[in-house]
Each structure stands twice: as structure tokens, then as C-alpha cells.
Design a protein that fits this description.
single chain, 119 residues, 7-stranded mixed sheet
């Protein structure tokens, strides 16, 4: 059973960098052909895909967030990390990490973590 767990600060000040880590257990983040995504849901809005890091280490980002986003991984810890720079209150959301396999859609999700951007 694959499990994902998000961790990181729940409160970030405007203009700072939001940093979240997803720890994966029950499966390796380097296993073919999985993609490890970050997704968020602002209050009262739908889900928004932020980006992914592939089993190869390749990354892809949402065009609307690309200039502020970086996703990296630590294969020794089986973790991948989101960094979102220059945050504003509009980045307040529940942030999820999730896995996508060869079939469309996400088969495993973390429980989500609330991040609030406020001074």
C-alpha cells in the first residue's frame, strides 16, 4: 500500500517561499512509470495542478505558476519537495501530493496540508 504524507509550515508570510515535502512509503519514487504531483485547492475553489516530478527526475509545471515553482526530490529519503516563491495570500490553500501512474488520474493522495499566507 502506497502512502503519501505532506509536511511543512502551515503559515508563510507574504513574499516568502513556501516549502513542502511529501514523504512516500510503500513504493519508490523512481519506479517506472510514476509521476509525483503537487496539487492545491484554495478555499471555495477547485483543484489546481501545480506540477510534477517524474520517475526519471524530469519536471513539469503549470504555466501559470512555472515562474515561481520548483519541484525536487531526495531519492535516498523517498521524498519530493515543492518550493513556491514570492507567495501572496492567493496562494493560501490545502496542498496535496499525489501519484499518477500509466493510467490517467491519481491513484494515491496525501491527506493534504493547509498552508495560509498571511503576515
Amino acid at each position: 500500500q502506497v502512502q503519501l504524507q505532506e509536511s511543512g509550515p502551515g503559515l508563510v508570510k507574504p513574499s516568502q517561499t513556501l516549502s513542502l515535502t511529501c514523504t512516500v512509503s510503500g513504493g519508490s519514487i523512481t519506479t517506472n512509470y510514476y509521476y509525483w504531483s503537487w496539487i492545491r485547492q484554495p478555499p471555495g475553489k477547485g483543484l489546481e495542478w501545480i506540477g510534477y516530478i517524474a520517475y526519471t527526475g524530469a519536471t513539469s509545471y503549470s504555466p501559470s505558476l512555472k515562474s515561481r515553482t520548483s519541484i525536487s526530490r531526495d531519492t535516498s529519503k523517498n521524498q519530493f519537495t515543492l518550493q513556491l516563491s514570492s507567495v501572496t495570500p492567493e496562494d493560501t490553500a490545502v496542498y496535496y501530493c499525489a501519484r499518477e501512474g500509466e493510467l490517467p488520474g491519481y491513484d494515491y493522495w496525501g491527506q493534504g496540508t493547509q498552508v495560509t499566507v498571511s503576515s
